[in-house]
Amino acid sequence: MLQLKKSRLLKGGIVPMEASKSECNRALVINALAPSPAKIDNISQARDSQTMIRLLEEDGPVWDVLDAGTTMRFLTAYAALTNREKTMTGTERMQERPIGILVDALRSLGAEIEYLNQEGYPPMKIKGFQAQQSEVIEMRGDTSSQYISAILMCAPMLPKGLELRLTGDINSRPYIEMTIDLMAKFGVSVEEADERTFRIAPQTYHTDQFAVESDWSGASYWFSAVALQKDSELFLNGLRSDSTQGDKAIIDLMQPLGVEAKFDEGGLRIWNSGKVTQEAVVFDFNKCPDLAQTVAVVCGALGVNAHFKGVQSLRIKETDRTLALQEQLAKFGVTIEPVNDPYEFTISPNPEGFPTDHNPLINTYEDHRMAMAFAPLSLLMDLQIEEKEVVKKSYPHFWEDLKKVTEQA
Ligand SMILES: O=C(O)C1=C[C@@H](OP(=O)(O)O)[C@@H](O)[C@H](O)C1
Ligand SMILES: C=C(OP(=O)(O)O)C(=O)O
């Protein structure tokens, strides 16, 4: 348990933003597929990326990805399409996160994969790849974009090339674009015939050097901190205006919650504008699901009525994030009500005001984003975080950074 004492942001605080685990895991898989690997700078210290590095170096028959979604999905495609025999497994929660859409796609390409426990979920045994069975495959886009990124990154290795057609709704689209952008940076082109059809000819990855960008998902917690303290300002060092990370959307999402942002040399300056909307706000997280928890907590704390759309994937992430938010925000009298579940929910503030006097304990559900989304509330009150180690999944220096830019109130 971590006890946070009520604190305030220091004037002129600078946060050195860490590397993006999403970009890093793509670069690592692409590099593993390249005949001569590039030098990767700014490798992420996040556990998800460190696990990826360790497994790619390990010769053993079992790849245990722990709780890393991208590592599970990217390495499943990598092992299957490069004809490796591997048992893919992970934490108990990982074994509840679906993977059937990816396994079906890999099987139709020619991979032999067997489920070891429950159909459609890890663990699976990948037995190898004999010959390419099809050149055109369809995949549903409504569950996780990670399946699509996984196939795209490995597709240039297929001897006959691939046409990948997406069906249904497409969630987390910017992550697909990030994948295509990184492939291009490693010298491989993807033809986007239309918005649901991708064509990849057989090609070889090649580049000398690649630098991983700073992480916009991690940046979102600093937007929360600034939203919660009048007259505050922070500099987020390393964020780039030309980033392909969809979570850059935090700039627009936080504007009605009183945060303004401007790119300056080397990063982003954010400050509290004092202008919090009095109206109910509709937010759509279809393209940036990892920001939903951050924004939900700020809405609750600032007393903003909100309607969240595009939240369907929250129920299949590190935990059921909709339920986790509902339970933890209830501790402050803030109500989350599912509408058209799992796609939408509403947030209604506590009619008596947001309570700040009871040193609440925030449960973390083994989800890094639960800890980091609630931590900025320590600018309003004493607060306990159940499991501080959870942040290591994506942002290992989060608590140090928080300490660096705050002082006890
Ligand atoms: O490709 C990626 O790096 C990611 C894609 C998203 O997952 P979904 O596509 O499952 O929504 C996101 O939530 C996750 O944190 C990282
Ligand atoms: C959902 C996340 O990660 P993953 O799906 O890669 O486990 C996340 O980092 O919020």
UniProtKB/TrEMBL annotation:
User: Known InterPro entries for this protein?
Assistant: Enolpyruvate_Tfrase_dom (IPR001986), Enolpyruvate_Tfrase_sf (IPR036968), EPSP_synthase (IPR006264), RNA3'P_cycl/enolpyr_Trfase_a/b (IPR013792)
Q: Top EC class per UniProt?
A: transferase
Q: Which organism is it from?
A: Persicobacter diffluens
Q: Which gene specifies this protein's sequence?
A: aroA
**What GO cellular component entries does it have?**
cytoplasm
Catalytic positions are: D290
Recorded hits in Pfam families, A to Z, give: EPSP_synthase
Binding of 3-phosphoshikimate, residues: K21, S22, R26, S144, S145, Q146, S172, D290, K317
GO BP annotations listed = amino acid biosynthetic process; aromatic amino acid family biosynthetic process; chorismate biosynthetic process
Give the molecular function GO annotations: 3-phosphoshikimate 1-carboxyvinyltransferase activity
Keywords from UniProt, A to Z, are: Amino-acid biosynthesis, Aromatic amino acid biosynthesis, Cytoplasm, Transferase
Q: What is this protein called?
A: 3-phosphoshikimate 1-carboxyvinyltransferase
Its localization reads: Cytoplasm
Q: What Enzyme Commission number(s) apply to this enzyme?
A: 2.5.1.19
Q: Which reaction does it catalyse?
A: 3-phosphoshikimate + phosphoenolpyruvate = 5-O-(1-carboxyvinyl)-3-phosphoshikimate + phosphate
Keyword Transferase: yes or no?
yes
The pathway that the record names for this protein is: Metabolic intermediate biosynthesis; chorismate biosynthesis; chorismate from D-erythrose 4-phosphate and phosphoenolpyruvate: step 6/7
Location (main, coarse): cytoplasm
